[in-house]
Write a structure and sequence with these properties.
two-stranded antiparallel ribbon; binds adenosine-5'-diphosphate; binds magnesium ion; Serine Threonine Protein Phosphatase 5, Tetratricopeptide repeat; mainly alpha; 2% strand; 2 strands
Length: 205
């Protein structure tokens, strides 16, 4: 696959909803350890709403598609992650405006624009034990064609999500636990890794 089209993007979002469905209990278990145990349910609700919204829709371009995704997540996910993932997809949509498809380098730039929005809103730095820890190395790893770039992103995100376990949480609910947040993986870093794994799965051609 050489280009990332609206069709691929929709396939990615549907696959993400399926993957989140399967992993919802695990994501909520991770959140129960250092938060309030709702991350899986939040993400499941949001992505189910996205799939429903996309059913029968024919978005004109990547911009229109990701704008719809962002708005839907903003209004359904809730918690800290709702505005962060919602804003992520809105920012991705802004960069995709007018584009029916894009190559791997442009996709990386769009996703980096989304990450920049998460950082702007949430003010998390790398090492604060959040989704930013998974997304940053993942998007930096996007080199080569679409299949290679997304596979590298998925691998980097998963490794980084696993590596959040020994960190002390400095943002969000988990930060209220202080030292007791140490020893558990961050739920948002895991959901971010899941999204990039389904992206790689979708783009492997
Ligand atoms: P809540 O914490 O409100 O219950 P969720 O459980 O859905 O919301 O999401 C928690 C996740 O959100 C965390 O695991 C973390 O990855 C992410 N998160 C929380 N605060 C921030 C922040 N300021 N910046 C980036 N990510 C954050
Ligand atoms: Mg929570």
């Amino acid at each position: 696959m050489s280009d990332f089209t609206v069709t691929e993007a929709i396939a990615w979002l549907k696959a993400s909803s399926d993957a989140i469905d399967k992993e919802a209990a695990h994501l909520s278990d991770l959140d129960a350890a250092i938060g309030d145990g709702d991350h899986g349910a939040n993400m499941k609700r949001g992505f189910q709403a996205v799939v429903k919204k996309l059913d029968g829709a024919e978005p004109a371009d990547l911009g229109a598609l990701f704008k719809t995704v962002g708005m839907t997540l903003l209004s359904t996910v809730g918690g800290a992650s709702g505005p962060l993932y919602g804003g992520f997809f809105l920012a991705v949509g802004k960069l995709g405006a007018g584009q029916a498809s894009c190559d791997a380098a442009a996709l990386a730039e769009m996703l980096k624009g989304g990450l920049a929005d998460i950082v702007k809103r949430g003010k998390a730095e790398i090492g604060d034990k959040t989704m930013v820890d998974a997304l940053t190395p993942a998007l930096d790893a996007m080199q080569g064609d679409l299949a290679a770039a997304t596979a590298a992103a998925a691998k980097a995100a998963r490794e980084a999500a696993t590596a959040t376990a020994p960190l002390l949480a400095k943002k969000g609910r988990a930060s209220y636990l202080g030292e007791r947040s140490i020893g558990h993986q961050d739920p948002g870093a895991n959901s971010a890794a899941l999204l990039l794994e389904t992206l790689a799965e979708t783009c492997k051609g």
